[in-house]
Specification:
Number of strands of chain B: 6
Radius of gyration of chain B: 16 Å
Structural class of chain B: alpha+beta
Largest sheet of chain A: none
CATH topology of chain B: Alpha-Beta Plaits
Distance between the termini of chain B: 31 Å
CATH class of chain B: Alpha Beta
Strand content of chain A: under 5%
Number of helices of chain B: 3
Oligomer: heterodimer
Distance between the termini of chain A: 67 Å
Radius of gyration of chain A: 25 Å
Number of helices of chain A: 20
Structural class of chain A: mainly alpha
Largest sheet of chain B: 4 strands, antiparallel
Number of strands of chain A: 0
Order of helices and strands of chain A: HHHHHHHHHHHHHHHHHHHH
CATH architecture of chain B: 2-Layer Sandwich
Strand order of the largest sheet of chain B: 2-5-1-6
Number of domains of chain B: 1
Largest interface: A-B, 32 and 28 residues
Shape of chain B: globular
Chain lengths: ~425, ~130
């Protein structure tokens, strides 16, 4: 790896802490971002010559802060800009001070930076875009590409989100335990949204959107580093890792979706699975279950099954039953019903989803699952009706194609039965 | 003389690498690994999952289990090698070669007092 690649990685990883601290100093996001940019430019000049500092974040905070203060002074024409050398030497002279200034604030600085992206006035798509821009430091072009929209549209979306935040009150005081827990939960939700934005890719989009999943995992690891003992944050990181481990198997060469049962499990990423399993293992020891842990535990059971038919569906069903209590939702019940159909057969599963017909009347997967249960029960005519409804609700060509496959099989079977 | 090379790296940087960057580092390191293997100087080596996956047991009475690594440090222990070389100078030479392949961070070079190779089969599934 050459100098520049290493410096780039160091700048990226120091970014949340550096901007978080600069935001605390200047209480203004634009000023903090500019100060950080300024510090990065100086780093690109100074680091190849002097070698990278021992604590890149502290270096960037001090240099960024000085640069921004100089900017203010220069504007007011009170003092001259100090010579460049004094700024480059800051690592040797001022690192201990930077550490003293920032060590204790490190956690809350980063949390605050992540938290301002979760403002309740911002719609989810703006929260995600803002987090990727401010916290992860992706360029507008990169974010636009991942969202499959034009650069100008994304620029506007981010500008609007920032304007809204500038008007909102950013909490700068150090939070108490209750406030902090609330912020952690909000940030976790935002990280989960970032991941889902990438994970719910349609056919042919997976490659463009995969960076969203990578970023979400990076953010989850960052959050976990700040809150090492929070089982739900372990659960969140585990969930994202275990889901993303399947990325290479989820789409075929033509970019079409491959369902879990049909995936080539040798394509699953063993490193991510190992890390995800380790994290969920750690989390469960706390005996403080939560929705992320339960979902991660489901993902872990899939990851542990060498073949689709080895999956422990009874255990998965029990986990969804837990999730239903924690987070009641028709979609969770639908997932539970799928597990029930695998563990105890389609009749019970079908009965379980009957009450969902109304709340999920516009939901593709409801009719897909209903059709599959009916088909297993040999109720071909009703199955076909459900599949037809599913096709009408399909969001993507590959969703429709998958249902059509089932319909074709149904036609073939009924033809065979008739002959 | 057996030495352990303990690999300390800034974890946040290592986990900022893209898969391509990670693969490139591993490929460069592998050149050094292959040379050591051929010379019969390469013992077991391993790469650890991030410290967020770590749990620490403090040997108090009763022992206390803590989430996270033993120590919060700027650079984290992310793996180690065991090598069989003549002396410290040669061990430092190996560390220099590895450092060229993977800059940033540090290697702590520690002579071994006891080496038990264990019975785990090679290639046992990590994780």
């Amino acid at each position: 790896m050459n100098d520049l690649t290493w410096i780039d990685a160091a700048l990226t990883s120091a970014r949340p802490q550096a901007i978080g601290a600069l935001l605390r100093y200047f209480r203004d996001l634009d000023t903090a971002e500019e100060a950080y940019q300024d510090a990065c430019l100086r780093a690109l000049k100074a680091w190849p010559e002097n070698g990278p500092p021992r604590d890149p974040a502290a270096w960037l905070i001090m240099v960024g802060r000085n640069a921004a203060l100089d900017g203010v002074r220069k504007k007011s024409r009170q003092t001259e800009l100090p010579p460049e050398e004094t700024i480059s030497d800051v690592d040797d002279v001022e690192t201990p001070m930077a550490e003293r200034l920032d060590g204790s604030h490190y956690r809350d600085d980063i949390l605050r930076l992540m938290f301002i992206c979760c403002h309740p006035d911002l719609p989810p798509s703006q929260q995600i875009a803002l987090a990727l821009r401010i916290v992860s430091g992706l360029s507008v072009r990169q974010i636009a590409k991942a969202f499959l929209v034009g650069e100008a549209a994304m620029e506007q979306r981010i500008t609007r989100a920032k304007a809204r935040i500038a008007k909102a009150e950013v909490p700068f005081e150090t939070p108490g335990p209750a406030d902090r827990a609330e912020r952690v939960a909000a940030v976790a939700r935002m990280v989960y949204l970032v991941f889902n934005e990438g994970y719910s890719s349609r056919s042919g989009e997976a490659e463009a959107r995969a960076p969203l999943c990578d970023e979400a995992i990076r953010l989850a690891r960052l959050l976990l580093r700040l809150f090492q003992t929070e089982p739900e944050i372990m659960g969140l990181a585990a969930l994202l890792l275990l889901q993303h481990a399947r990325a290479d198997a989820r789409f075929d060469a033509a970019g079409e979706v491959v369902l879990l049962d049909d995936q080539d499990r040798s394509l699953w990423n063993r490193d991510m699975i190992a890390e995800g399993l380790a994290l969920i293992d750690k989390a469960l020891r706390h005996r403080r279950p939560g929705p992320y842990q339960v979902q991660a535990a489901v993902a872990a059971l899939h990851a542990r099954a060498g073949r689709a038919e080895d999956t422990d569906w009874a255990q998965i069903e029990a986990l969804y039953a837990n999730l239903e209590i924690m987070q009641p939702s028709p979609v969770v019940t639908l997932n539970r019903a799928v597990a029930v159909s695998k563990a105890r057969g389609p009749a019970e599963a079908l009965a379980m989803i009957e009450p969902l017909a109304e709340p999920l009347s516009g939901y593709f997967y409801f009719f897909g699952a209903r059709g599959a249960f009916l088909l297993q029960l040999g109720r071909a005519r009703e199955a076909r009706e459900a599949f037809d409804q599913a096709i009408a609700l399909a969001n993507t060509a590959s969703e429709a194609a998958h249902i059509r496959q089932q319909l074709d099989r149904l036609m073939k079977d009924s033809a065979a039965a008739g002959s | 003389m057996l030495y352990a090379l303990l690999c300390y790296n800034p974890e946040e940087v290592v986990y900022s690498w893209t898969k391509e960057e990670d693969d490139a580092v591993m490929a460069r390191l592998d050149v050094v690994h292959q040379r050591l293997l051929k010379q019969g100087k390469m013992g077991p080596s391993l790469r650890l999952l991030p410290t967020t996956a770590a749990t620490t047991l403090r040997k108090t009475d009763p022992p206390m289990v803590i989430d996270g690594p033993f120590a919060e440090t700027k650079e984290q222990l992310l793996g180690f090698y065991v090598i069989d070389v003549a002396d410290l100078e040669e061990a430092l030479g190996v560390a220099r070669d590895l450092a060229k392949a993977n800059p940033g961070g540090a290697y702590e070079i520690r002579p071994l007092r006891l080496f038990l190779p264990g019975t785990l089969p090679e290639g046992v599934q990590a994780g």
